[in-house]
Amino acid sequence: MPELNKDAQAVRKIAVFADVHGNYTALRAVLADAHRHHASDFWFLGDVLLPGPGSHEILEVLGQLGITSWPRGNWEDLLVGGHQKILDVTDPQRLYFTRQAMYQDQFLDAATYAKLAQLPLTVTHEVGGLTFRLSHNLPFKNYGQELIPTESQANFDQLLEPGVDVALYGHTHRQLVRYGSGGQLIVNPGTVGMAFANPGKVQHDLRAMYALLTVSDARISSVDLRKVEYDKNAELALAKRRGLPYYDLYQDQLLAGVGYTHNRPVLAAYAAAHGYLQEVDAYVNK
Ligand SMILES: [Mn+2]
User: Fold this and answer.
1) Percentage of the residues of the chain whose pLDDT score is greater than 70
2) What are the pLDDT digits (tens) for 211-233?
3) C-alpha of residue 1 to centroid of ligand 1, in Å
4) How confident is the model at residue 209 (pLDDT cuts 50, 70, 90)?
5) Is 32 within the bounds of a domain?
6) How close is the Cα of 77 to the center of ligand 1, in Å?
7) If you count Cβ atoms within 10 Å of the first and of the last residue's Cβ in the chain, which end, N or C, has fewer?
8) What is the CA(144)–ligand 1 centre distance, in A?
9) Cα–Cα distance for residue pair 232/176, rounded to 1 Å
10) How far is the CA of 241 from the centre of ligand 1 (A)?
11) 3-state SS of the chain?
12) Which domain holds residue 131?
């Protein structure tokens, strides 16, 4: 009998996760689950901080994990833009991001912002003879609605340049497995920390999400779209303790899955009631 080639037989269990959005409690629950399932690799797909209270401790955990990928999310761009004070704060949404950057400034140093600003839009990994392409949304555009699950095949094929076998993306906060026109695999692990109340009984689930990919002997043995319970009250207590701006909206986000990022009337009213425009004016003009 020929000797087994150990490398060819090696099993890799890859935990793919995205869109932590400052939710440290959800991240710890996901990582505990991944460790329990013997994950050997950790691939992140962007959107690390905001609107949750988590900050430097999340970056420290990612550093300790030895994350081998981090394509830049659109919220990395917005956080850096807020910190650089280049967003138009007459727009309630841009005021929201700038006020959140102001909150993050108490925890993050200049080197961290510089690192976030320089993250690439795509990362490529070769495992078991397969080429994986990772991006936050599209490989050339880390924002937009092109890749929500009900969008057209042509949009999804934009993830797949020649030579790519598996495309991994985040951003929509919805788990998905589908195929490219050439038979390539496309996976979205959903969101760790910012689940939305999606329509339908099946999709309405506010737990922390990620995907566990098993690669063995040059094949994908399984794609496990996992959902993990976490302590939302502990997360909200952390937000309260730290004086998180827009706290009530964060609470609604966690408990009811309501997203406010694009709800300018609510963001404007909340900012007015809490004096954020004055605070941000002082910050921007400092
Ligand atoms: Mn995003």
Assistant:
1) 97
2) 999 999 889 999 999 999 999 99
3) 51
4) very high
5) yes
6) 10
7) N
8) 8
9) 24
10) 26
11) CCCCCHHHHCEEEEEEECCCCCCHHHHHHHHHHHHHCCCCEEEECCCCCCCCCCCHHHHHHHHHHCCCCCCCCHHHHHHHHHHCCCCCCCCHHHHHHHHHHHHHCCCCCHHHHHHHHCCCCEEEEEECCEEEEEECCECCECCCCCCCCCCCHHHHHCCCCCCCCEEEECCCCCEEEEECCCCCEEEEECCCCCCCCCCCCCCCCCCEEEEEEEEECCEEEEEEEEEECCCHHHHHHHHHHCCCCCHHHHHHHHHHCCCCCCCHHHHHHHHHHHCHHHHHHHHHCC
12) 6-284
pLDDT in tens, 135-154: 999 999 999 999 999 999 99
Task: Tell me the two tokens of residue 277.
Answer: 């425009």
Q: So what's the pLDDT on residue 208?
A: 98
Is the predicted pLDDT of residue 96 greater than 60, yes or no?
A: yes
Quick check: 8 pLDDT over 80? no
The domain spanning residue 107 has which CATH number?
3.60.21.10
Distance 131 CA to ligand 1 centre (A): 23
Mean pLDDT within 256-284: 96
Q: Into how many domains does the chain fold?
A: 1
Output the CA 7–ligand 1 centroid distance in Å. 36
Average pLDDT over residues 40-60: 98
Query: In the predicted model, is pLDDT for residue 241 greater than 50?
Result: yes
Given a cut of 80, whether residue 43 has pLDDT beyond it is: yes
Does residue 1 lie in a domain region? no
Q: How far is the CA of 98 from the centre of ligand 1 (A)?
A: 17
Q: Please check whether residue 215 lies inside any domain of the structure.
A: yes
